Structure formats: C-alpha cells, structure tokens
Amino acid sequence: MAKQLYITEKPSVANGFANVLGLEISKSDRGRGYAENNQVIISWCFGHLVTMAYPEAYDPAYKSWRVEHLPIIPKEYKYIVIDNAGTKKQFEVIKQLMNRHDVDMIYSCTDSGREGEYIFRLVYQLSGTNKPAKRVWISSQTDEAVKKGIDEAKDIREYDSLSQAAYCRAKEDWLFGMNFSRIYTCQYGKDLSARFKEDKRSVIAIGRVMTCVLGLVVERELEIRNFVPKVHYGVVAEFISRESGISYKGKWQPKKIKGPDPTEEHESEEKYLSQEDAQEIIERLKGQEAAVKKVEVKVKKEQPPLLFNLAELQSEVNKKFKLPVDKTLEIAQSLYEKKLISYPRTDSRVLSSDIIKEIPKVLNSLAANAVFKDFVLRIKDFGKLAINKSTKRFVNDNKVTDHYAIIPTYVTTDISRLDVNSRNVYSLIVKRFLAIFYPQAEYNTVKVETEITGEIFVTNSKTMKEPGWKEVYEVTPAKDGELISTSPLHLLIKKEKCAVMAFDLEQKETKPPSRFSDASLVLTMEKAGKYIENEELREQIKTCGIGTSATRSGIIKKLKDIGYIRINPKTQIVSPEPKGEAIVDYVRLSAKELLNPILTASWEKGLLMIQNNETTEEVFEEKLNSYITRTIEKVKKNRGKLANTPHG
pLDDT tens for residues 351-390? Predict the structure, then answer.
C-alpha cells in the first residue's frame, strides 16, 4: 500500500503533525528517526542537515589560503551532509524513506519561509529521489492549521522561486565569506596579530551582513568618541494668575520668523541660547507684568500600536525585560511549537484578511484565561466585533509578506506553568493583540502662551481623558525635555494678567547619540532604508533590511561570539571590541561599501525579486559573481595602503 512521507524541520514539530495524522511517536520511534502506520510516515530534520561544501572540496589546493587563488567562484556548487554523527544518521534515515518503494508522495512540512524551504530542498536534492512532493504552508501549529495546511498543500514546484531565492542567498553568503575572509586574512592577518600581540596570524571573518552590522556598531562608537558637547541655556518663568490664583511655569520660546509668504511662520532654527543671552532675557524681563496670550484646548487621540513582527517583539522585550534578541527568538519559537502563537519569524505587522474569521475563536480562548478574561470582556463591551475603519489599519493583505503578524492562537494555556521569560513574552504578544480591538486613547491637552513684553513662554498640560487601548498597556511617559504642568491650565483666560514670581536659568548639555542595544540594532537592521539618502533607492528597498527576521539575532550573536563586539549582560548595550574596530579599519581601505547598509539591503532586495519572479537567479548570480571578482581585485591592489591605517 502506497504511503505518504511527511518531513518536519524539528522533532518537536513532528509531534503536532503526528497528532493530526493519527500517529503517536514513541521513544523507540525517536531512536530510529521516524514513525509510521499503514497510511503515513513522519520523520524530521534537526534544522539544517545539509550545508555547502568548503572550497577544498573543489580543489585540494584551496585548503591553503592564498591570495592568488582568489576569487573562488564555483561553476557548480557542491553540498554535503553536515559532519556530525547524529545529523548524518538522520539524513540517511530520511534519504532511505524518500527512496522507499512504498512512498509515493513527500510532504515538506519545514517552517514556512525561505530558510525552511532551503532545509527541505537540500535534503530532497541530496536524497536523489525524483518522487513528487507537496508543500505544507502554515502560520500556526494548531491542529486545525496543520490539518488545513495538509489538505491545501500545493505542488512543491509552486515554491520554486522561493527555493531559488534561498539557494542564491546561501551562494551569496558563501562567496562573500569564503573570498573576503580569505583575502583579508591573507593581507592583514599578520598585522592584526601584531596589533594584538597574538602568536598566530589572526583569521579575519568577513560576512555580507555581519560586516555591515559591525560597521554600524563601530561607526556609532566613533560618533560618540568624537562628539563635542555643547552647553546651552534656557529660561523658565514661574507665573501666578492675579485673577484665578493658578500657578504654573512656562518655557521661553524663540521668536517665529516670517517666511517669504507673509502668512507663513516658522520657528527660528537657533533654539539654543548662550548663558549671556539667557541672562540678558531674564534681566530685561525682571519686574515686568505678564499676560496670557493664548489658551489652546484640544482633545488628542492616540491609536493602538501595530501588531508585533519579530524585530518589534525583540525590541519591546529588550526594553521591558532586558532579554537578548536571540533569547527572545528562542522563546518565540518555543511558544510557536507549543501552538500558543503564530509563526514568529515574520516581518509583517498586520493581519491577512483570511485570518479574520479566526479572531472570535482566539478571543474566546483568551477569555477562558483568568489573566486576560477582563480585557476580552471589555472588548465585548465595545459592541459588535467587526472590521471597521479603526481595525482596517491592522488588516492589509498588501502589507503581509510570507506570514502575518505575531498573534496568539486559540490554544489555551495556564500561563503560570510557563517559565517567567516565556510568560512575559507571551503576555506581551497577547496584550498587543488585544489592544487593537480597544478604542483610541484620548488626552485633554492644553497649550498656554504667556507673554512678557514681547517674549513668549509656553506651558503644556496633558491629562488622560479616555485610556482606551492603554487599559491593556502602560501609558507612554512624556517626552524628555517637554515641560508638562499639572495645574488646571484650561481655566486660564486670554489676556488674564499674571505676576512673574521667579525666573530660572536652565543649563543643558547636548548629548552624543546612544549606543545600540542588541534590540535597537535588530530594528536598525530591519529598517536599513533610513540610511539611504537617495529617495528612489530607499523606496525600492523599504521592504528589505539587512538580513532577515530569521537571521538577524544570530548575526549579532556571532559577532559577539567571535569577539568583534561585546554586549553588556545587564543592559544589552552593544559596543565594539578593539579587534572589531581594527577589522573595520581594514575594510574601509578598499571595500568600504561592505560596511554600508545600501549594498547589503540592495542584495536583499535582489533576493526578494527572485522570490517574486521579478528577476532570475541567472541574472542575480551574474551580477554577484561580477561584484565578487571586481572587489577582490580592488582589495588586492590596495594592500599598500596598510601603512596609513590607524593603529589604536
């Protein structure tokens, strides 16, 4: 009897598929690497089982790192099973299953994304089978989602463009890593060892994404070191109304300058005062009467934040709980495999329209959890659950990439059984999701302008009117530097006379840019387009950052592990190690574009174009090979510049 073979990415995921397929994976099944019954067989990878071969697999001479060998650009790439006993054994198990005479259909059940596609395709390729295969594409691990994914599985060939993009990404990383690591090591490894008093020639690791991220960290550090603080001053006046007795403070504002159009005004660009100028204002205004010039009362509304994608989740978790980004990804993946959240490796912050029908089911399941019950009941108080003008902001098929935003599933759990970090991450995801069904938060804002002989002092008041979605989230604190009053400013009346009780001279110092945390670095990688001045190019790559949601935290971790950056374990603040700075020095000599997000994001854009059938892998590889050849030759010629490198 013919059987269907299902391959998952990990053993833990296989359990969920086994439940749907009517299988129970026993301890002995785990030992032999698969489980089966009369209809189906299920097996699993351990993540990657196959990898790209090293250069010496193409020519034994490449075992020695020599400049004359470079660039190394294979005409046909070789792939090998990862050299690990357990991995090799599992690969052989899957290979035999794929080639078994009674297997007539293979289902790819690896994670639904570029990397998951690559994991399966490599195993399928090296197995030597030519049997038909189907792709199971799911966004959550619930039984219902898995069943639907199996029922609606498509011919694997419909995902060929995704597969081609995955292969090209791997080739790109291989070419960058193998060629640039070798040439920089050959040309600068001895110098690096001498700088750091090491016995052996240092290996200089260069990567397409990794080196760009290192460049961002080093550049930020140099900005901080070279920053020269400027002291500036401000004037604060303390007022009391002669009529109502309301006391409040106001901050001096620069005068507005008339533009070319008499109806237009803008504030002077120079907002900073010298101590002499500030003191002169105080002396000039002492003893003068003040009057209320303007009282502006408004209601301001604040919408709920968009849903989490992985980078935003990592950032939020880092701010609230100081967890490293790789730890957050690990927790999110675990929650996904426990069926508690949707697929975490997503760049989308909105939902697709087809998931909307599942929302009531998710809300009902959350209502069964004591921690979230009251929040869900409040949503029911707001009336009928429907896609209205407000919630449309969170549903947009055009803004969904491979997967929609991270949200909870309808699977319930007693969150007290989760470890504290998992509980915190899960709760954040749930609350972010619940918040989108709440009304906007509303504030009463008052802006008062008080005049003293032509000089204007501004006071702001901001009070919560309706918390709306902030019943779920904490209220965002006021912006740093904003003068917020708790006095009842709305009771002041235009032209009301005020006494000036005192003047204060404020002294402030300009601050350097902040160092990255590992979470803000992930967000920077995601939003690489902000570094690009060319508007057209910025628009082209706005959907592509540096790396992908699946790889960014791993890249940061690798930079830390190889000693190029350090991450403070308490604050997660990132700073470069001396060796990392030295490597950036070398790269600046002859291939400084490797440090630029423009180049890295442009290559990422090319991969997305392959995935979307907007270009071919042949065109992409031709451009890639040309760039590698051209740049390697440039690095060779620039060897002589070493004498001019800064040695710190």
Answer: 988 888 889 999 999 999 999 999 999 888 776 555 555 5
Return the H-helix or E-strand segment holding 115: helix 114-127
CA–CA separation, 585 and 187 (whole Å) = 13
Computed from CA positions of residues 419, 424, 429, 430, in that sequence, does the dihedral angle turn out positive or negative?
positive
Instruction: Please tell me which residue in 188, 343, 438, 473 is annotated as part of the active site.
Output: 343
Cβ atoms < 10 Å from Cβ of 627: 16
Per DSSP, what are the bridge partners of residue 444? 299, 463
Residues β-bridged to residue 51: 80
Token pair 């007539």: residue:
104
Written as one string, the DSSP assignment of 395-446 is: B-GGG--SS--B-B-S----GGGS-HHHHHHHHHHHHHHHHTTSPPEEEEEE
Q: Give the integer Cα–Cα distance in Å for 72 and 244.
A: 82
Which residue type sits at 593?
E
Sign for the pseudo-dihedral over CA of 110, 111, 116, 117: positive
503, 455 Cβ separation under 8 angstroms: no
Average pLDDT over residues 196-221: 92
Instruction: Say how far apart CA 334 and CA 332 lie, in whole Å.
Output: 5
- Dig out the tokens for 580 from the structure: 């990392």
When pLDDT is averaged across residues 270-296 and rounded to a whole number, the result is 90
DSSP 543: T
Cα separation, 452 vs 413, in Å, equals 62
Task: Between 576 and 600, name the one with better pLDDT.
Answer: 576
Burial class (CB in 10 A: 0-12, 13-18, 19+), 331: buried
How wide is the angle at C-alpha 370 spanned by C-alphas 367 and 371, nearest 5°?
95
Model confidence over 520-569: pLDDT tens digits?
Answer: 999 989 887 666 666 655 665 666 778 888 889 999 999 999 999 999 99
Q: Which two tokens stand for residue 617?
A: 């892998």
The secondary element (H helix, E strand) that includes residue 465 is: strand 455-466
> 195: Cβ–Cβ under 8 A, 6 or more apart, which residues?
582, 647
107 is an active site residue: no
pLDDT 10s digits, 229-242: 999 999 999 999 99
The DSSP code sequence of 157-217 is: GGGHHHHHHHHHHHHHHHHIIIIIHHHHHHHHHHHHHHHTT-SSPPP----TTHHHHHHHH
pLDDT digits (tens, 9 = 90+) for 6-55: 999 999 899 989 999 999 999 999 999 999 999 999 999 999 999 999 99
Structural contact between residues 552 and 329, judged by C-beta atoms closer than 8 angstroms: no
